[in-house]
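INFO batch 0412 | record 1 of 1 | parsing
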Amino acid sequence: MPDDPALAATDARKAAFSRRSVLAGVAAVPLVAAVPVGSPTLQEAAGRAGMLFGAAMRANVIASDAALRTAVARECGVITPELELKWAWIEPQQGRFVFRDADRIAAFASTTGKTMHGHALLWHQSIPPWVAQVLADRPDWTIMRRFMAAVMPRYAATVRTWDVVNEPMEMGHRMDGLRPSPFLQAFGPDYIHRALDEARQAAPRATLFINEYGLSHDLPWQRDKRYLLLKLLEGLKRAGAPVDGVGIQAHLELVDQSSFRERVLADFLDELGNLGLQVRISELDVKEADLTATVPVRDRRVADAVGAYLDVALDNRAVGSVTCWGLTDRYSWLDEGRNVGNRGLPLDRDFVPKPVYDAIRRAFERRLVND
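INFO prediction complete | emitting tokens
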């Protein structure tokens, strides 16, 4: 997952902006390269198919880049905060809640007619140090309850879906496949059910998800993870836990593309749908394997991988939305600290639509035709 709680340490990287400045930026700054006149945007294509398209964003980037604001306003129906709703960001010290950046994204979403996806309440890589200490010393569920009760109702008008537990699975540790996180160590396997119950209390109308990666390819560890995640979900449903859906993190890596099997993904989605669960393609992007090829060749490889994936995913009616982890290569976690020029998102660094943009749009259009 692209995140690091240490990013919350400085305010220098997070510029302030008001609703007025956001709207002015959207109105005043066009895309560097627009989608051809008459062609639907990604959200328009998704909407026609009864779906949502979205992208993950950071508050400081939305604040500082008017062209990005224009692109998001044009292309997206839902916005996911990359960092700003995670516990380490929201409550760095016990009882001191910092909502400023999440509020800014929520305001931008509201003023541009978008919803915001709540990502993510419990994640092992975004635990404030004070929480880790409490969980280690004297496990106290009340801190979990207070956190959710403070955060979720605040965004009830904008957030309709929440990732309640993010990445609870990790192979190689336990027979049930659960990650040995501080939450598991403090409260045992039942922490997932308890967290879902707390989330339902705090946001009765929200749709509650478990979000996980490594579920799409025909690799041994992913086969095990799919099987054990289904067992977890079956158990939660049987016990009456309010789990509504699963987010599938589609961080595709071209080095693994030979292990992609359409039937494997299709069967897994069928099993999720048979459990009555909604599915979000929650973090779509592509990590390239060969940066030495020409740009047209690289872009075609990325587009082919995404097209093959979405053609399978969108064939299943349990899948209701697609969110990319970023919208433009200018701001991609796959490039952070490396500057390799990865081209795994719909728009390039100059906001020009690439072949993968067309692949995503065609997948939505194919879904509409097949309905």
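INFO post-check: Residues 1-33 have pLDDT under 50 and may be disordered.
INFO record closed
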